[in-house]
Design a protein that fits this description.
The complex is a heterodimer. Helix content of chain A is 0%, strand content 56%. Chain A has strands spanning 2-7, 10-14, 19-27, 32-38, 44-50, 56-58, 64-68, 73-78, 87-94, 104-105, 109-114. In chain A, strand 6 and strand 7 (64-68) form a beta hairpin. Chain A is globular. Chain B is mainly β. Chain B is 0% helix and 53% strand. Chain B contains no helices and 11 strands. In chain B, the strands form 2 sheets. In chain B, strands 2, 4, 5, 6, 9, 10 and 11 form a 7-stranded mixed beta sheet that branches. In chain B, strands 1-3-8-7 form a 4-stranded antiparallel beta sheet, with no helix packed on it. Chain B starts with a strand and ends with a strand. The model of chain B has no long low-confidence stretch (mean pLDDT 93). At the A-B interface, strand 4, strand 5 and strand 10 of A face strand 4, strand 5, strand 9 and strand 10 of B.
Chain lengths: 115, 114
């Protein structure tokens, strides 16, 4: 079984400030981890993924995340927030080969960027 | 490459009716998954189809069903609609080649049940 917990349903930052969105996971098999972003009235867009290999992964739009197995975490960061980053962010886990393409999502974090 | 397309984008139905939603995956993708998104329950997995076979199923009642065609296009059907079925239904496709595991999502179909 797999689960994802996103700490903080709402995060507010100033433009230019660090963005940190927290994600902790639980998985009985080696996890494959993803961050998606959703803008209003749109589907989900993949930001980045971790499957195997390097634990620090870089994604689109300046985002990156670090897989920490000992902490069962996969937090998303961006050094400097932009107004266009305002959206809802979802962390997701899958079991890769053991669970096919099935994703288990966290509850989402709404990011607000203040001017 | 064209992305995942879903039709229709918006739908209004009455309780008791049935509805069919359609999804065309990215060219070359063989796996199609469906998710339901609601404010209360978040994103929940419905089912996954691969090579015309249901490979995985979430915890939804039998009123929710799907199928996949030989060209990988997929349809999802909900019978005897309930008010609680109002949601954004998202389709996602993936290569499912045991190398890349990311899924690519369509824009969704917004279903409103009155």
């Amino acid at each position: 079984a797999q689960s994802v917990t996103q700490l903080g349903s709402h995060v507010s930052v100033s433009e230019g400030a660090l963005v940190l969105l927290r994600c902790n996971y639980s998985s009985s098999v080696p996890p494959y981890l993803f961050w998606y972003v959703q803008y209003p009235n749109q589907g989900l867009q993949l930001l980045l993924k971790y499957t195997t290999g390097a634990t620090l992964v870089k994604g689109i739009n300046g985002f990156e995340a670090e897989f920490k197995k000992s902490e069962t975490s996969f937090h998303l960061t961006k050094p400097s927030a932009h107004m266009s980053d305002a959206a809802e962010y979802f962390c997701a886990v899958s079991g890769g080969e053991t669970s096919g393409s099935r994703l288990t999502f966290g509850e989402g974090t709404q990011l607000t960027v203040n001017p | 490459k064209a992305g995942v397309t879903q039709t229709p984008r918006y739908l209004i139905k009455t309780r008791g009716q049935q509805v069919t939603l359609s999804c065309s995956p990215i060219s070359g993708h063989r796996s199609v998954s469906w998710y339901q998104q609601t404010p209360g329950q978040g994103l929940q997995f419905l089912f996954e189809y691969f090579s015309e076979t249901q490979r995985n199923k979430g915890n939804f009642p039998g009123r929710f069903s799907g199928r996949q065609f030989s060209n990988s296009r997929s349809e999802m059907n909900v019978s005897t609609l309930e008010l609680g079925d109002s949601a954004l239904y998202l389709c996602a496709s993936s290569l499912s080649d045991f190398v890349s595991y990311e899924q690519y999502f369509g824009p969704g179909t917004r279903l409103t049940v009155t």
